[in-house]
Specification:
hpI Integrase, Chain A, 3 strands, 48% helix
Length: 199
């Protein structure tokens, strides 16, 4: 803004990204939902669990971005992360049913809203998570559901390229570094080896 000559934090070293080895099992997710008293928030969490979408995508999706014929959200380039290509979020039956319900309720603007009819924001979501922490016993965030989705897909045997495309990554190599904790799961690796050996 011109008040100082240079940024006082310009030369600060950026801290490394946190490890993403924490995931929710299906049983933990179902248990979590039992502590969520509000349908609107429960549906928002369910969409994240079922699609692995980014938080900003669920908070910004509008009815006009929904492609019902192909069961997906299609964000135009200017609304997508990186702004280089359209972002497509594919919807399974559960996520599609939730999307339909809210897009008909809110045909204009963001479709996911709280009990007061206001679009969810990062702050309002974090406030809900803070309340949920006291009941569930652990702190959650939207990226935990995205990470759990990716881990679940990889453990199910889905190939890394398909998982990367579902997550919206342009480079599937990112999966090998972000989800390397799978290498420490001997049961998963042994199952994959036996599956490949029997073919």
């Amino acid at each position: 803004m011109g008040h100082i000559d240079s940024s006082p934090i310009a030369y600060f070293e950026k801290p490394p990204a946190e490890s993403r080895d924490r995931v929710l099992s299906t049983q933990e997710f179902e248990q979590l939902l039992k502590h969520v008293p509000v349908d609107e928030f429960r549906d928002l969490l369910s969409v994240h669990w079922e699609t692995g979408c980014r938080p900003q995508e669920s908070l910004r999706v509008e009815a006009k971005f929904v492609d019902l014929k192909n069961s997906r959200w299609v964000f135009p380039i200017k609304k997508s992360k990186g702004k280089r290509r359209p972002r497509i979020v594919y919807l399974n039956d559960t996520a599609l049913a939730i999307t339909k319900r809210y897009m008909h309720k809110w045909p204009d603007g963001p479709i996911f809203r709280n009990t007061k009819g206001r679009p969810w924001t990062k702050d309002s979501v974090n406030c809900r998570f803070e309340r949920l922490k006291n009941k569930f016993g652990t702190r959650c965030c939207m990226y935990l559901f995205r990470h759990s989705f990716a881990t679940k897909m990889l453990e199910s045997g889905l190939d890394a390229l398909t998982v990367a495309l579902l997550l919206g990554h342009s480079n599937p190599a990112m999966l090998s570094t972000t989800y390397q904790h799978l290498a420490h799961n001997p049961g998963h690796l042994l199952e994959q080896l036996n599956r490949a050996s029997s073919q």
